[in-house]
Design brief:
Layout (H helix, E strand, L loop, with lengths): L1 H22 L1 E7 L5 H17 L3 E7 L2 H14 L5 E5 L3 H6 L3 E2 L16 E4 L2 E5 L6 E6 H6 L13 H14 L4 E4 L8 H13 L19 H15 L10 H6 L6 E7 L3 H7 L3 E4 L10 E3 L2 E6 L5 H11 L2 H11 L6 H6 L10 H10 E3 L6 H16 L4 H18 L6
Helix pairs in contact: 2-12, 7-8, 15-16
Length: 419
């Protein structure tokens, strides 16, 4: 009798728990990081904590390979099958918002106070997405290399001038000590080109599109500053200061550690292998080509879809996920930049005195978003093609004019993208 009573009590308890679980509203979340075990462990932990913290919503993750993620979202949008929560690469967010895939993010503004600007995705003066990290690029070299060739160590306050940078590359090349004085990462032919090389154009005073009106690239991608940038860009390859477009990815990934390159233009996600290889690595700001030293900003961010029937619940999850302890956890796990000073102080790589602290400072001081427009998707492709063609020997003016024509045709075809 006692056993029967105990069994009945357990059954009632189980039924109660099952009823509570079934009462939770399920929120689906799509993520681009399939195959990354570290990211998955951290994100799954955040989801579990959120699900355990309340009884109204239950988030369920579905992960996709990064290479096919965007196509999956577009296909789902066309079929009307978007999830409740999704992540989006920062520069693509305006296109998805304009296309109707996303809706504004209703979270407490106090929750994002003090965040790095690059992790906040806005379109038409409304917040649509928030990132759990940012990324930054630096001129990475060894202090012993700078000392050997008597090259000044630049600072945030006083970066290399265009003349200093050019003289440093020429001096290193003349030594014959390296296959190339500088690695730009020409092997990485995706979003790297506009993200990493766009800041050089901006520093010359040009851009991919007129950011005041967003209605044309004429005069900004083929004006005098842009032409000066193009001439400099072409000269890097003509003078064999950098590897060309035939560089393979292994050479980009390992060339600096192997001693093939004196300086590498790369992101904080590559910093740990460099620090493991050398004890005198320095991460330096981009050169100032006349309009200031600049780097790219904005990485992957969380957003809510236009199709979710529970925007408040989806926003609750995102607001839960951007707690400093989770921002620090992602930073510790994948090496990217925490979006707040508080999270940076909690992290092992970006805390005061930590080896990658400088990247937070670079992101805060120099980070600049790629053009915030739905047309960026086409602008990025046109810019990448122009830079590839110029590196392969094309005429600078012709290549930039062709890019302008492609961008302006796209803007006109889309009736100005709502700007």
């Amino acid at each position: 009798m006692k056993l029967l009573a105990t069994t009945s009590a357990a059954a009632i308890a189980l039924a109660t728990l099952t009823g509570a679980a079934s009462a939770q509203t399920q929120l689906t979340m799509w993520y681009h990081g399939a195959g990354n075990a570290v990211e998955a462990e951290i994100l799954n932990g955040i989801v579990k904590d959120f699900n355990d913290s309340q009884t109204e919503f239950q988030v369920v993750i579905e992960s996709f390979p990064q290479n096919s993620y965007n196509d999956s979202v577009v296909a789902a949008a066309l079929a009307g099958n978007l999830p409740d929560i999704l992540d989006v690469d920062g520069p693509n967010m305006p296109n998805w918002a304009w296309a109707g895939y996303l809706q504004p993010l209703p979270i407490d503004q106090a929750a994002i106070e003090g965040f790095l600007p690059g992790v906040l995705g806005t379109w038409n003066d409304q917040l649509y997405s928030v990132g759990l990290w940012d990324a930054a690029v630096a001129m990475t070299t060894r202090q012993s290399t700078l000392d050997k060739y008597e090259i000044r160590t630049p600072t945030l306050e006083e970066p290399w001038t265009a003349e200093e940078f050019d003289a440093a590359l020429e001096k290193i090349k003349a030594s014959g000590d390296f296959a190339y004085p500088l690695d730009l990462g020409m092997a990485d032919k995706g979003e790297w080109y506009p993200y990493a090389f766009g800041p050089f154009l901006w520093s010359f005073g040009g851009d991919m599109v007129n950011r005041e009106t967003y209605d044309t690239a004429e005069g900004v991608l083929n004006g005098d500053p842009a032409l000066a940038f193009g001439d400099w860009w072409k000269s890097l390859f003509d003078r064999e200061l950098v590897p060309g477009t035939s560089q393979d990815m292994a050479a980009h990934d390992n060339g600096f550690q192997n001693g093939d390159y004196a300086i590498t233009w790369n992101g904080n996600w590559k910093a740990l292998p460099y620090l493991e290889a050398f004890d005198d690595v320095v991460f330096l700001p981009a050169p100032d080509f006349g309009a200031g030293s600049k780097i790219g900003a904005a990485s992957w961010q969380f957003a809510i879809s236009s199709k979710t029937e529970h925007p408040d619940g989806a926003a609750d999850f995102i607001e839960f996920a951007i707690q400093d302890k989770y921002l620090a956890a992602f930073s510790d796990g994948i090496g990217l930049i925490p979006p707040t000073k508080e999270a940076a102080a909690m992290s092992k790589y970006y805390a005061p005195g930590a080896p990658m602290e400088v990247f937070y400072d670079l992101s805060e001081a120099q980070g600049m978003k790629r053009p915030v427009t739905p047309g960026y998707v086409v602008e990025a492709l046109a810019f990448r093609k122009a830079l590839t063609d110029i590196a392969d020997g094309a005429d600078v003016a012709d290549a930039l004019d062709a890019a302008v024509d492609e961008i302006d045709t796209d803007i006109e075809r889309n009736q100005g993208y709502g700007h």
